[in-house]
Amino acid sequence: MDALIPMIRNLRATRFADIPPDVVEAAKKSILDTLGTTLAGSGALGSREVVALVREWGGKKEASVINHGDIVPLPNAVFANAVMARAIDLDDLHEKGTLHASATIIPAALGAAEYRMNVSGRDFLAAVVLGIDFTCRLALAPRISPAITGISYTYTHGILGAAAVASRLLGLDETQTLNAMGIAYSQGVGNRQANVEGALTVRVQQGLTAKAGIVSALLAQRGITGAQNVIQGKYGYYTVFERNTYASDLLTKDLGKHFEGKNISYKLYPCCKFNHGAIEATLEMAKRNDLRSDQVAEIHVGLNQQMFDLVCEPYDDKVAPRNAVDAQFSLYYTVATALVRGKVFIDDFGEEIIRDREVLAVARRVKPHVDPLLEKEFSIGISPTLVTIRLKNGSLLEGRVDHVKGHPLKPLTLEEIFEKYKRCARLALRPLRQEQMDRMGQTIFQLEQVGDVSSMVTLLTPGES
Asked: What is the pTM of this model?
């Protein structure tokens, strides 16, 4: 029996009352965080073009495009919202699985809830918890590093997760849900080539993933069948894409008792998480030693191979980013920004600011390398980061970051996530009023008491509260 079947049964059978309070709290964090990053990404490059296309398509009014105010067919709304959620790369991450789950799951869940109508906060929270857990379990199983396969779990597993959360919220039965998985698998092609080339596809594919999951559930609801042995069949996912090298027990271990949403990390820097350890170490050492960039000869950064491949290569495009995506996936640029500006946030990735001469000069002094001990112990996922700053006077400053602020072992509170949400909301294409921001915080804090979660949409667009 394909392991997807017990996962689907758990997806359908688990109720809100079965979910521990700390897991519910984690889901609230992910929902609030994702809505905030969606607002901040509402006017970003890529987002504007996708929204304009969706608006041009028109069609039946089924679900809302966040902040823009358009009401469009469900798959198109989810497409646009997931693009915006990922656009500034400030959305949360499951570090062990190395994937952006929430930026797919939450737009899909909110769209499905608005489409179905009268979905309670309790049902919505349960669906988000289970959708994130479903997606992250799939990403934990592979034993070969994505640095070797080139696979992006954000997309290959996110598409199944989006189909799963949509199937639950749309009320599909077990057979229909399994069919939705097969239909989703037929559309899943997720890889890292766009990351390497700095293409806007990085953020757009997040939307395509969520949209495909929604379409899969809608097709299955109407009787379209899909492959049944989706992940362990002769040509199933793990056979084809992971060379049949995976830990099958991780798919179902403690299913319904342990929920991977507890292991989500929340970002404070709007760039690839592989950069965050080096950013945090640089910021801390620079502040503690009152460093100026002209005092620094070199910054050496040790990390694992998977991280090095994504944020350090190709050298020419990373050390002098051609665009915002290159900069978001550049260890050189983000570490240099941390040293020069004493911060790394959304305004540091504008198309003009990434050409700052001082930052680019410092970027060439950043010297990353694959640390053999880190690679041996942490070959898959995010490894600790080693940073050595060599000053021009010969002094050495050394730091190691195992977990950055926002990691489950160094968590952000729900209140801290709300502060981040407000910072993001002020940067929306159509900035929100303080009253709307406050009401959203109150809504999420007490989401299990909300009668219809589609009411949240009105708090994301000015003039509609």
From this structure: 0.94
